């Protein structure tokens, strides 16, 4: 089935009903695997002060997330516009299948008149690249602290070194465009479900977006914005875990919170059930307690859903839309993206 036909089906009443039924069955299956008395006892004793502080950290993270996106578009749109459209995209990605949030972000921005749709699209490619760097950094920290390593000068140096390597790789992509397009796509084409042509198109979009901020200073600022954004996102994960399990050693608090940040970051949150499987299963394989992870995932998912939906609804009305119009425009954007993919 072509992607555009799949999008059309999923946005139809039958498609949405089927998605809802499958999600409900998935949640029922998940519920049978959880020791609910233990989980509910953990939730009942949560520290509300830490939860409020974590939620505030999440909101600040979303603000800086929007500031970074605006910076990637050369500060052309006003920050309130970018903030609201970014929140609409996050809400749409969270609540709907196929994650059409990026497509609706581009569509809504282009209908505002600036920036050009190509610049908006390129900025999102760069944004995804920066998000990937941050996810890998968080995942590396999760493995290090999960193995029992303490916070030390060596772990800090390792984190800084990874970010420095990522920064210089971005500089190399911009300055050695032709060589990058010649060398990297054939290598990426060996990965599952990715052919060389798709890899080349993705890399061209990435380099085009990076070229808009091609100076060393601009690239460094974009990376710093990403680090600050993810620091506040991590604050949400860490404080939520601390609210539930203040007795855990610091190394475990760091390992679990960095692992959950890498697996289900606030910039890529999703529905209950999918969220839990994406987070709990991998961390359980690292030896962490399942009841601990389940209670933690429920708190993270519930708080992030509340924040994402409230910010998204606010952004919808602030953009002059009602929810019906947003649904129609989201379907149109997803269909347009699907047609391009076909």
List the helices and strands and how they pair.
Blueprint: H1 3-10, H2 13-31, H3 36-44, H4 48-72, H5 79-95, H6 101-112, H7 117-146, H8 153-175, H9 177-188, H10 196-211, H11 216-244, H12 250-263, H13 274-285, H14 290-318, H15 323-341
Description of the molecule:
The chain is an all-alpha fold and 342 residues long. It has one domain (38-341). Helix content is 80%, strand content 0%. The protein has 15 helices and no strands. Helix 5 packs antiparallel against helix 6.
- General shape: globular
* SSE order, one letter for each helix or strand: HHHHHHHHHHHHHHH
- Oligomerization state: single chain
Give the end-to-end Cα distance, rounded to a whole number of Å. 10 Å
**Main pleated sheet:** none
Low-confidence stretches: none
Instruction: Output the radius of gyration.
Output: 20 Å
Number of domains: 1
Number of strands: 0
Mean pLDDT over the full residue set: 82
Q: What is the number of helical segments per DSSP (H or I, 4+ residues)?
A: 15
Q: Portion of residues in helices?
A: over 70%
Q: Structural class of the helices, strands and pairings?
A: mainly alpha
* Fraction in beta strands: under 5%
């Amino acid at each position: 089935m072509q992607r555009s036909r799949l999008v059309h089906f999923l946005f139809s009443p039958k498609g949405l009903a089927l998605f809802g039924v499958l999600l409900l069955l998935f949640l029922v299956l998940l519920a049978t695997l959880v020791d609910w008395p233990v989980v509910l006892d953990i939730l009942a004793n949560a520290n509300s002060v830490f939860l409020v502080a974590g939620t505030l950290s999440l909101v600040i993270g979303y603000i800086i997330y929007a500031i970074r996106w605006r910076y990637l578009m050369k500060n052309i749109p006003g920050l309130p516009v970018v903030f609201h459209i970014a929140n609409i995209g996050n809400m749409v990605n969270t609540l709907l299948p196929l994650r059409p949030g990026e497509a609706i972000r581009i569509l809504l921005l282009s209908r505002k008149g600036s920036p050009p749709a190509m610049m908006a699209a390129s900025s999102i490619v760069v944004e995804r690249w920066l998000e990937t760097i941050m996810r890998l950094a968080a995942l590396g920290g999760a493995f290090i602290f999960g193995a029992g390593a303490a916070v030390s000068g060596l772990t800090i140096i390792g984190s800084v070194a990874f970010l420095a390597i990522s920064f210089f790789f971005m500089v190399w992509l911009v300055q050695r465009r032709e060589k990058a397009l010649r060398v990297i796509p054939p290598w990426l084409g060996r990965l599952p479900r990715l052919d060389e042509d798709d890899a080349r198109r993705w890399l061209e979009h990435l380099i085009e977006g990076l070229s808009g901020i091609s100076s060393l200073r601009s690239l460094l600022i974009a990376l710093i914005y990403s680090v600050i954004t993810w620091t506040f996102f991590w604050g949400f994960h860490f404080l939520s875990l601390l609210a539930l399990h203040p007795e855990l050693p610091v190394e475990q608090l760091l390992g679990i919170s960095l692992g959950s940040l890498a697996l289900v970051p606030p910039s890529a949150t999703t529905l209950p059930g999918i969220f839990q499987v994406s987070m709990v299963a991998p961390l359980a394989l690292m030896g962490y307690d399942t009841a601990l992870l389940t209670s933690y995932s429920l708190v993270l998912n519930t708080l992030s859903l509340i924040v994402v939906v409230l910010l998204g609804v606010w952004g919808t009305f602030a953009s002059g839309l009602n929810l019906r119009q947003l649904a129609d425009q989201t379907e149109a954007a997803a269909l347009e993206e699907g047609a391009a993919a076909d």
